[in-house]
Design brief:
It contains six helices and nine strands; from the N terminus they run βαβαββαβαβααβββ. By secondary structure, it is an alpha/beta fold. The radius of gyration is 17 Å and the shape is globular.
């Protein structure tokens, strides 16, 4: 099947500024997450990705802003099934007391991430709802805030996510639609993401 009028679109989120001191590193903001996002945006533009105004959330971004932007990017758009959507996140990943994983936003409480964090489950739901059959998700979640922020069940979440995507892929094959959906993650449950001090970038994005 020939692809016509297909576009490449990106949503870049790099959270460096956190209100809660527990999400800072030695009392400082995560400037390397800002650098990650800005560099990723520059590189994607070289690859002809369109990054619309408002789809570059770098530095400080609260839960409501991020939630609405993710929804607009995946669901509330006038795109084509042949469009490629790329979602990139650099920042903290936090766990709740039941092991659910959340993207930590500027106003997230690490003890109650279910209130103002963006869960992997919600992100999966948005991906399922998009009409695009080409989605790339890049998660560079840094857990350097504390041991509790550095441990988790990313591997279990990835396994569940992969199963959902495989089921959706089978449905799309039945409709004879071409599709590519993949997730690139910085590490497993026993791994952490680190900044490169000399270059002020995280290892994974670098």
């Amino acid at each position: 099947m020939l692809i016509t009028n297909a576009q490449k679109k990106a949503l870049i989120i790099g959270i460096s500024d956190y209100t809660d001191p527990r999400l800072k590193v030695d009392g400082r903001n995560l400037n390397f997450c800002r650098n990650d996002a800005e560099t990723m945006g520059e590189e994607l533009k070289k690859l002809n990705f369109d990054i619309a105004e408002g789809n570059m959330l770098v530095g400080e971004a609260n839960w409501e802003k991020v939630r609405n932007t993710i929804y607009d990017f995946f669901v509330d758009n006038e795109g084509s099934p042949d469009d490629t959507l790329l979602f990139y996140y650099s920042g903290h990943g936090v766990l709740d007391d039941q092991g659910n994983i959340y993207l930590a936003l500027s106003d997230t409480d690490p003890k109650k991430p279910y209130m103002r964090g963006y869960s992997f489950g919600d992100l999966t739901m948005m991906i399922e709802r998009t009409i695009s059959t080409r989605v790339v998700v890049i998660l560079d979640c840094c857990y350097s805030g504390s041991a509790k922020l550095g441990k988790g069940s990313e591997e279990d979440a990835a396994r569940k996510w992969r199963r959902i995507m495989e089921e959706r892929s089978n449905n799309l094959r039945e409709q004879q639609q071409r599709h590519v959906k993949c997730i690139l993650a910085a590490g497993l449950s026993y791994q952490e993401a680190y900044a490169l001090k000399q270059e002020e970038r995280s290892v994974f994005t670098k």
